[in-house]
């Protein structure tokens, strides 16, 4: 199974259902959910509803879990058997809280635990299991980890070519990726600094990798895998519409995603204006002016989604169906720009 060649990385907050839909319709062949904590996923139905929504169009999709215990992980994965196309184990999150909890990059130092996680998760869920790792400064450690995972049937391995101590801006170690690829029997996905379509081909040539995964490159331009140099307006429109239709949180996700997508498209004053918006209608107005975004026109690629929207697997009614519009705030929280008479007219129009 897998890997596809053009892959959208797991991204906390960002790689939720609406974003997954958009990158998929703009050239991604495989998309990950954000990292989900296995412990809370098995403990609480509310956590399941919040962390994982999907619909019939959301395939192929890989769910990524963070866990410090093989039993916990295998239970979480079993809950999604038949609903996703694979389970990925996060062995790369370098944040201090993650290391302290024994998840993410802490697992790079526990290859036997990773081996047990892969084995038990495969058995409990019947799903393909992959691991997402970072390079170790001592590559022998990386090779030992990958060998143990291979012994118990890992389906493929994603290697981010930076160590757990690297900064996100540090260069990617493509030599290390090539070396690991040469030792692997299962497919390897290379991750790090894929910012345009050409990077995919360059990475294949320089490392022999079977797939290329992008994170920040797709945040900046979700149409990158289709060969676009900058986010096209249609793609912005697709995201706005997807978010409205499928549901998302305003401040942490919708607004921040648009900031990323438009960071190379907007001029400074348009960026300041967008950053000041605190409501959906404010953002809509701002984008209509700055990138000539049509007023929430339903893109053809989304028409077929309308009847199914997003759904939670665990509750009969998804709490997300309404959450997007619930975050529309009162006038007192609107930005200066939105309070201007011209802005007010558009806002009122948008509400009708
Ligand atoms: C906003 C953001 C959220 C991320 N969340 C996750 C995550 O949930 N799981 C994970 O394995 N990596 C996560 N990462 C790391 C990326 O998946 C990727 O490994 C890293 O950004 C390097 O790829 P890039 O150079 O294409 O950005 C995240 C990165 C960013 C920028």
TrEMBL record:
Domain annotation DUS-like FMN-binding: ranges: 8-241
Classification via PROSITE patterns: UPF0034 (PS01136)
GO MF annotation terms: flavin adenine dinucleotide binding; tRNA dihydrouridine synthase activity
UniProt cross-references to Pfam families, sorted A to Z: Dus (PF01207)
Top-rank taxon, per record: Eukaryota
Keywords: Flavoprotein, FMN, Oxidoreductase, tRNA processing
Leader sequence segment: none
Cofactor(s) this protein requires: FMN
Name of the protein in its database record: DUS-like FMN-binding domain-containing protein
Species: Guillardia theta (strain CCMP2712) (Cryptophyte)
Phylogenetic lineage: Eukaryota, Cryptophyceae, Pyrenomonadales, Geminigeraceae, Guillardia
């Amino acid at each position: 199974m897998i890997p596809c060649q053009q892959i959208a990385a797991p991204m906390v907050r960002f790689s939720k259902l609406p974003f997954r839909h958009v990158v998929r319709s703009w050239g991604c062949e495989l998309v990950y959910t954000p990292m989900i904590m296995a412990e809370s996923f098995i403990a609480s139905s509310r956590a399941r509803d919040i962390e994982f929504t999907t619909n019939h169009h959301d395939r192929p999709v890989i769910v990524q879990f963070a866990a410090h215990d093989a039993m916990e992980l295998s239970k979480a994965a079993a809950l999604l058997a038949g609903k996703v196309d694979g389970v990925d184990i996060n062995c790369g999150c370098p944040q201090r809280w993650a290391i302290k909890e024994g998840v993410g990059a802490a697992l790079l130092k526990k290859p036997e635990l990773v081996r047990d996680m892969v084995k038990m998760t495969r058995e409990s869920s019947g799903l393909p299991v992959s691991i997402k790792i970072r390079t170790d400064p001592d590559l022998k450690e990386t090779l030992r980890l990958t060998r143990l995972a291979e012994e118990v049937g890992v389906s493929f391995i994603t290697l981010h070519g930076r160590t757990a101590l690297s900064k996100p801006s540090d260069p990617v170690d493509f030599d290390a990726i090539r070396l690991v690829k040469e030792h692997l029997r299962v497919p390897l996905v290379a991750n790090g600094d894929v910012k345009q379509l050409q990077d995919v081909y360059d990475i294949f040539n320089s490392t022999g990798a079977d797939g290329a995964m992008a994170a920040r490159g797709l945040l900046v331009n979700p149409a990158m895998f289709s060969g676009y140099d900058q986010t096209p307006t249609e793609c912005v429109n697709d995201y706005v519409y997807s978010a409205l239709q499928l549901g998302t949180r305003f401040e942490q996700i919708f607004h921040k995603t648009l900031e990323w997508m438009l960071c190379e498209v907007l001029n400074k004053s348009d960026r300041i204006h967008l950053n000041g918006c605190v409501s959906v209608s404010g953002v809509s107005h701002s984008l209509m002016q700055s990138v000539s975004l049509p007023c929430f026109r339903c893109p053809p690629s989304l028409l077929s989604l309308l009847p199914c929207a997003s759904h939670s697997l665990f509750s009969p009614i998804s709490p997300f169906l309404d959450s997007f519009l619930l975050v529309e705030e009162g006038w007192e929280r609107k930005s200066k720009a939105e309070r201007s008479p011209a802005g007010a007219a558009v806002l009122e129009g948008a509400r009708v």
